[in-house]
Amino acid sequence: MFQCLGEVTHNLEATMHARGRAVVLNCAKPLLWMPREQGIGSRYLIPDRGVANPRPRRADFSARLTSCRHAPRHPRGPPMPSEFTVFLVADRLLANGERPSLRKVREAIPTGGSPREVCKHLRAWRKKRSYDPKLEPTDMTKGMKEKGQALAMELWKQAKREATQAFARERAAAETDAADENQDREHLLGMIETLQAENVALLARAEAAEAGSGRVQARLAKVEYQLDRFRAEEFRDRVMQEIAELLAERGPLTPTEILPELRAATLRGATLHKEPLTAGTLKKKMDVRVFHGRYFEPQDEGRYARKAS
């Protein structure tokens, strides 16, 4: 039977490993070493207390540790696989018709290895070998493969025929649409040309109408001017008749004496015709009648009398 070293031995081992040294104990019988996962506590096992060899004292531990200061360290686990090992295992798996997955490569390596390291080397192998895994059936007979290939070829030909027919239908539909669009375009262009011609004709008619309107406006203005002159002349003639009647009743009078005797309607009419009646205006209009021998005769002291008929 074997048992572990005590707490002191375990702590001593941890301390020496932290300083980069190995712990080697000398006993009458050689110590056994085993991986940590297979034992309990420390990796160093010694014979049971029942044997003749007593446990070493503290002083003996110090002396023996000093003499074994440069002893080699015991390995803590299996070594990591190299890139060459991973490449070799992956090539062998591929040659055997197996897919070199991470699990299979680790299982094939004698020392195992961490998934991280193996995966790194396996990625390098895939890149160097240009390995691209594909789904390839391996349990099919030659006849099944030939029939499968023939079926795939027939399906491909059928798909090609259908695609060609669909393309032809789409092309015919596109050509029909293009022809309809061209026809509509020609129709619209014809309508545009017709509308443009009508627009030109309307513009010409509008210009002619505008010119005719200008002529009409000029003639209308001339007629209105003549009408205003006729109305003004008629109004002045009525005023002269009213003055002639006044002179027939009152006798010779000066324009200044005549003006207050005119009717209010006559004065308002003069304002409407833009010819306000004043003594000077009356004298000017009466002199014109005297010159033409109508209505009045001049008298002494600037007076006017009615002309005898």
Give a short account of the largest sheet. 3 strands, antiparallel
Q: What's the pLDDT, averaged over the residues?
A: 75
CATH superfamily of the domain at 223-306: Winged helix-like DNA-binding domain superfamily/Winged helix DNA-binding domain
Determine the fraction of residues in helical runs and give it as a percent range: 55-70%
CATH architecture of the domain at 223-306: Orthogonal Bundle
Overall body shape: rod-shaped
Class derived from helix and strand content: mainly alpha
InterPro entries: KfrA_DNA-bd_N (IPR021104)
Domain KfrA N-terminal DNA-binding: 85-198
Protein name: KfrA N-terminal DNA-binding domain-containing protein
Organism: Methylobacterium currus
Search tags:
309 residues; Arc Repressor Mutant, subunit A; three-stranded antiparallel sheet; 9 helices
Briefly summarize what is shown.
The protein is mainly alpha-helical and 309 residues long. Among the domains are: 2-67, no CATH class; 83-129; 223-306, Arc Repressor Mutant, subunit A, CATH 1.10.10.
Structure notes:
Helix 3 (83-95) crosses helix 5 (115-129). Among the domains are: 2-67, no CATH class; 83-129; 223-306, Winged helix-like DNA-binding domain superfamily/Winged helix DNA-binding domain (Arc Repressor Mutant, subunit A). By secondary structure, the chain is mainly alpha-helical. The chain starts with a strand and ends with a strand. It has helices spanning 7-18, 58-67, 83-95, 102-108, 115-129, 142-250, 255-258, 264-272, 279-291; strands at residues 2-4, 32-33, 44-47, 296-298, 304-306. It is built from nine helices and five strands; from the N terminus they run βαββααααααααββ. It is rod-shaped, with a radius of gyration of 69 Å. A hairpin with a 5-residue loop joins strand 4 (296-298) and strand 5.
